[in-house]
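chain below, 189 aa
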Amino acid sequence: MKPGEEELNRVFWTTFNQLGTLSTFYSVMKNGLPHGAKKQVREMADFADDLYRDGTLASWLYEPQKVDDLYRAIVKQTDSVHEEIKENAQRSLDAVAIILAHSILDVSVHGYLEVLSLASPESFVPFIEKKQVSISQVKSNTYEQVRDEKVKEYMEKQIDRNSLVFKLLESPDLPCAGLCHESRSFRPG
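prediction:
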């Protein structure tokens, strides 16, 4: 098995499963919106009915004799309230889906960078070539061992802490930059 192949497999299936979960969540929530909105409107109408029947609604009015007119207006509003609830819920669902999709993309990009660091550690040398290395580390390890350790540190300290935008756009020399534009430093090994 080539370096990074096992990690690539893990990252791919993790991403695939996360996207499936997001798709299922979105579908279930979206298909449940009409029913949920109707239920909420029905609960609001039942509450208004209770207030009307027990006289509470009339006691809140400055002109209690207009309680019938107010009640009819409340009942008439339920259709527009139903549509408004559905629209607000759809917007909220869309926002949640975007946030989840961003998180999945961020984790996936990081995972693929880890794969690249294992499969082609030499591509990361421009980012670590000026890092300090102790003499004892040089004496007791090969170049590849020192390089791999520094690449691992770079991944943990730099890549983990940066945003998705940095990983994809603001650092054109990162090996994953080929996802957005041609990379100048990535050379599969």
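The chain has two domains: 1-107, 120-189. The longest helix spans residues 67-119.
thats it, cya
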